[in-house]
Each structure stands twice: as C-alpha cells, then as structure tokens.
C-alpha cells in the first residue's frame, strides 16, 4: 500500500489537491471539477497514503498545489492543513506555500491558512483584464485583485502572483498593463508563463477548429523580454526561467526541484523523487481513491534513473535556474567533471551564443533564455 519507501532523506513535501470549480480551457493538470462529493474520500485516502511515514518528519518546505487547494470548504481545508502539518511539521524558517484562487480568499480562509502556519500564497491572477480573463475562463474580475492581495498581505506578507502571456488576442500593450498592475499590488514574487496549448485540453480542440489563434512567436518573445526588463528594473531577480523574486523571496520549494533535492509527494498524479527513484501516482482521481481504499499501490510509474540519465536530467532541470549549473555542485552530486562529461555539447552551445561558460559554471546567455527548451534538450 505504501506509495513510497520509508526514507527520511527529504525535506520537501508536495500535496496535490485535485478539486476545482471549473477546469480552465488551457489546463492539463490532474483534477476533477464539480465533484466536491469526493473531498471526504480524498482526505481519508491522503491520510492513509501519508501513513507510510509512521513518525512525524520536520521538513523545510510544504507546497499545496492543484487543482485549487483553497476550493475546499473551510472545515475540510482546515482538516487537510492540520493533517499534513501534523505528519510533516515545518522547520523554523521553513516555507509553507499554497496555491489559491483569488475569489476563495475570504478573511475566514486567510485566517485558517495563517493559523495553520501558511507563510506564502501563490495567487492565480493570470491577467488584470476582463477580456483575457474571459478567454482564460477565470472566474474573477481584474479590478478585484488589488483588494484581494492587500487582504492576504495583511496576514501573510509573502504573496506570489501568477500571470499568463501569449493569450489569444493579447497585445504587447495589454501585457505591459498586466505587469504594471501586478507590480502595483506589491507582491514579493511573480511567475510569468507563456500560454501553451497542451494536447487533450479544450484550448487545443478550439485551436484545431479555428476558434482560437496562437499569438505570433515574435510577439510572445517580446512579451517575455518586456517582463524580464520591467521586473528587473523594479528590483526583482530573474532567478528561474518563469520566476522573479524580490531579494530573499525565491520559492524554496521549487528551488528544491531545480537543485535535484529529494522530495515526497502525495495525492493523485503527484510525483516524488526519493533515493534516485521517481514515482508518479495514478492521475485518475477516482482510480487513486479506490486504490487507496483497497490498500493497493497508487504508483502508476516508477523509474530509477541510471547515472548518465540522472546527470543529463540534472543539467536539463538545473539550467532552468538563471545562475546555471555549478561545476562543483555537479562534481559533488555525481563525482564527475561536468566539463568533461558534456564538453562537446557545452562548446557547441557556447559557439552558438546560447550558453556562457566560465571557470565556475555554465548558464544560459540572454539569448539562450529565449531558446531555453532547445538548449536544455541538447543535454538529454
């Protein structure tokens, strides 16, 4: 029944909460919409899955993602937070993040989060303009956001805002407006994501029917460049491809992923990485529930990475960080000299002006940032 081995070498925990009021057209995450009747079964199953850890384990980061964790009714939300923090209490100075939908953030919900020890909220804003929010099928209005952010910041000062660029019909002026509105809210962190049309989503179906048109690649690049420029001007550090933080406010949980640290994950579709093995739970919410109830394993896939594969993947993930991959860090993790291991690829990318290499590390150049997926794929 255990979804993972009894191992205490991790300091980060991810909890997947698969409930939403509505599935947005661009979303391909593991979730169910309009099935709140399953919440009690989910809480029981999650508790059972976490019981593989018979002793409470103090961790550095806890992250509740989804779905929409704040969609849970207040009593169940409180139950979820208590259940997880009892099993995985947060270390002093640790980071406790939750993804939130703006309209869920009532005073009562903020109180429950604050009381449970939550010290970071990641708010799914996406845009401040109603026409784009409508395209993205979001349920809030752009004008509601500043007041909601102020309400959260009064209790939980560390607030991150998610924004999406490349929305069909969006102009560079529109995107600039969103960035300025976001900055005016005073967040500590911003995530900017280019809209992608994932296979199996409603957006991809609509694109095939000619109902949605992807914006021009050159315009999308301009939008990304504008975000980098504006946010850096405002004192945000561009520390990962999609992420910008005020000094001291980098997302510690996500850094654990990009640094290749081990982490445990619970819930449907959740993927953990422990002792060099990645285990991914079944994505079917109903499948996850019934398997947990039957005492069966919920793991759909398990892969122990061969050393070379692990090294290539470490480069792929590590290069997402703007600081790049440090030679000493690579040597410490794998006992191998990075410059020898990937010499040819590094030299080729340096010649192309996409990678910078000095005596300490390799990292993406300002041009390489725009072609990051291509660059990182070269190491796989």
UniProtKB/TrEMBL annotation:
GO terms for molecular function: 4 iron, 4 sulfur cluster binding; coproporphyrinogen oxidase activity; metal ion binding. It comes from the Bacteria. It comes from Planctopirus limnophila (strain ATCC 43296 / DSM 3776 / IFAM 1008 / Mu 290). Probably acts as a heme chaperone, transferring heme to an unknown acceptor. Binds one molecule of heme per monomer, possibly covalently. Binds 1 [4Fe-4S] cluster. The cluster is coordinated with 3 cysteines and an exchangeable S-adenosyl-L-methionine. One of its GO terms (biological process) is porphyrin-containing compound biosynthetic process. It is found in: Cytoplasm. SMART domains: Elp3. Keywords: 4Fe-4S, Chaperone, Cytoplasm, Heme, Iron, Iron-sulfur, Metal-binding, Oxidoreductase, S-adenosyl-L-methionine. Belongs to the anaerobic coproporphyrinogen-III oxidase family. HemW subfamily. One of its GO terms (cellular component) is cytoplasm. Residues 5-234 form the Radical SAM core domain. InterPro entries: Coproporphyrinogen-III_oxidase, Elp3/MiaA/NifB-like_rSAM, HemN_C, HemW-like, rSAM, rSAM_horseshoe, rSAM_sf. The keyword Heme applies. This is Heme chaperone HemW.
């Amino acid at each position: 029944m255990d979804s993972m081995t009894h191992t205490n070498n991790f300091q980060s925990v991810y909890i997947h909460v698969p409930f939403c009021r509505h599935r947005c057209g661009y979303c391909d995450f593991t979730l169910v919409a309009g099935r709140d009747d399953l919440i009690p079964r989910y809480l029981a199953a999650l508790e059972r899955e976490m019981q593989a850890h018979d002793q409470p384990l103090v961790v550095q980061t806890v992250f509740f993602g989804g779905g929409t964790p704040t969609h849970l009714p207040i009593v169940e939300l409180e139950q979820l937070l208590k259940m997880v923090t009892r099993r995985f209490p947060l270390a002093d100075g640790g980071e406790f993040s939750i993804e939130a939908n703006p309209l869920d953030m009532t005073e009562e919900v903020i109180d429950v989060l604050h009381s449970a020890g939550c010290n970071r909220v990641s708010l799914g804003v996406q845009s401040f303009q109603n026409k784009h929010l409508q395209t993205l099928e979001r349920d809030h209005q752009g004008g509601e956001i500043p007041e909601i952010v102020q309400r959260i910041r009064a209790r939980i000062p560390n607030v991150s805002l998610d924004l999406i660029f490349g929305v069909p019909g969006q102009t560079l002026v529109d995107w600039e407006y969103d960035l300025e509105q976001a900055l005016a809210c005073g967040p500590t962190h911003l995530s900017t994501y280019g809209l992608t049309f994932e296979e199996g989503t409603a957006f991809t179906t609509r694109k095939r029917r000619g109902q949605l048109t992807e914006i021009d690649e050159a315009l999308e690049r301009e939008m990304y460049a504008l975000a980098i420029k504006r946010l850096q001007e405002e004192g945000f550090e561009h520390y990962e491809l999609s992420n910008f933080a005020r000094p001291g406010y980098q997302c510690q949980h996500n850094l654990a992923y990009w640094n290749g640290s081990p982490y445990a994950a619970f819930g449907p579709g959740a993927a953990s990485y422990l002792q060099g093995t990645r285990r991914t739970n079944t994505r079917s919410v109903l499948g996850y529930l019934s398997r947990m109830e039957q005492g069966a394993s919920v793991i759909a896939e398990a892969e122990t990475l061969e050393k070379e594969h692990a090294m290539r993947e470490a480069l792929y993930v590590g290069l997402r960080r703007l600081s790049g991959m440090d030679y000493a860090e690579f040597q410490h993790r794998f006992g191998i000299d990075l410059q020898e291991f990937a010499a040819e690829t590094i030299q080729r990318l340096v010649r192309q002006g996409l990678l910078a290499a000095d005596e300490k590390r390799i990292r993406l150049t300002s041009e390489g940032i725009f072609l990051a997926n291509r660059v990182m794929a070269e190491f796989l």
